[in-house]
Amino acid sequence: MPAKTWGYSSISVHASPEVRKLYYDHMESKDRDETRLKHLLLEMTVAANKHIASIEHEIDQLLK
Fold first, then answer.
1. Which of 18, 15, 37 is nearest to 26 (CA)?
2. 14-60: pLDDT as tens digits
């Protein structure tokens, strides 16, 4: 996903597609408070862990 621009800065997020979607959806939301941020961090962690698990599974399959 290309970098998005808000105002004058450009931000690149290097993560799985699922994590990037969560991040960009949050940044585009008008409702950003501390509670939603904590929830976002939890969702991003879960999505990243699932992505890592899928990569580990692919590696295991290739090594068999």
1. 37
2. 889 999 999 889 989 988 889 999 999 999 999 999 999 999 999 99
The single-letter DSSP state of residue 3 is P
Does residue 47 sit within a domain? yes
- Provide the whole-model pTM: 0.71
Residue 7 lies in a domain: no
Query: What domain count does the chain have?
Result: 1
Q: Are 4 and 27 in contact (CB under 8 A)?
A: yes
C-alpha to C-alpha distance for 18 and 34, rounded to whole angstroms: 21
